[in-house]
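Notebook entry, structure prediction.
Reason for the run: the old model in the group folder had no record of what sequence produced it. Starting over properly, with the input documented here first.
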Amino acid sequence: MVIQSILVGLLYWFSMGRAHYFFSYALRRPIILGIIIGLIFGDAEAGLIYGGAIQLIYMGGIEAGGNIPSDMALATCISVPAAIVNNLDPATAVTIAVPFGVLGVLINNFRRTINTFFNARADKLIDDGDYDQAARYGFLIPWLANGFLHFIPVFLATWLGPAVVESFINVIPEVILSGLENAGGMLPAVGFALTLVVLGKRKYLPFFVLGFFLYTVIDMSMITLAILGLSLALIVSITSDDSDKGDYAYE
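New structure, fully documented this time:
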């Protein structure tokens, strides 16, 4: 179990570490993680079944402004190994996943709190003109430091069982938990505010009106609208020259 626990811990780190955002964003999907965890434990079919069941409860999750309403990656990386080892049914795996998804939000808020110190140091280095060091403090050092925060909980939970994580939660002072929960509650408002700022730009309003019209009047499905939106975004990107891109960035 030690090797499997290490691999699952690293898997969670890679899925939430954002070393390559597109890769990590795709990797953290429960159905993807479930297959990989199943391969680690020698039962890819079971991993797919558990991951698919957990994926259903996060289908409508929107990470507005970078805020995560629930950490589906942590929920998957802890519940799927437990389900495979104990041969649980998918419904039980989902029951295990939900509270750990909430715990992951607290971990993510703690990660952001730690990163503020690295960001302050990076800003100082930029002011001093030391761009090489600033790049390290802007990504590499936080990524490695956050690796411990991502790796250790999943490693211990997989190696010793979910009970150790429950015991860990019980020893955290209530004031810290409350503070992290309150901070997490404010982040959705910030995310929606950032989204409204983007939609409020005059160049983007026609796309907003078009999407609203197609969804409410023509009753298009979300998948159809997503494909149409992607196509329109690619068309705009292809037909816009470099001077136009500057206007989008600073308007």
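Summary: The mean pLDDT is 77.
The old model has been moved to the deprecated folder.
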